[in-house]
Amino acid sequence: MHASDADDGPITGINVTPLVDVVLVVLIIFMATAPMIARRAIKVEVPRVAKQDKAATDAIAVALTANRELTLGGKPVTPEELKKTLAQVLAAKPEQAVTISADKTLPYGDVAELLDTVRGAGVRKVGLEVRRK
How many domains does the chain have? Predict the structure, then answer.
C-alpha cells in the first residue's frame, strides 16, 4: 500500500476553525451593540437643543422616565439604591461621570431632585442628555 492510497478515501473530519472565527466575530458585534440596544429599550424622550457637548463614553447612565421610573444602567432602582450604588462606584473611581436622561414632560422639580440625589452621592461630573434639533 502506498501513501497516496490513504489520501483517496472520504474526508470524515470537520474543520471547526472557520466556525470559531465566525462565532467570535458575532460575539464582538453583539458586545459592541448591546449598550445601544439597552438604551433604546428605556423610553425616555429627552429635550432637543441647538448646541450640545460630546457625551462621555464611560459615563454611568441614569434615566428618569415619564412615569417617574428611575433606572441605573438600564436596571430599575430606587433613589436610595441609586445613591448607595453611585457612592460605591465613586469610592473605586472618584472621577466617574454620570449622564442623566429625563423625559421632557417631567416637571423641573423632579429632574432637580434627581440631580440632587446624584450629586449627594458625591458625583462631580454630571451631564444632562439631550438631542440635537
Answer: 1
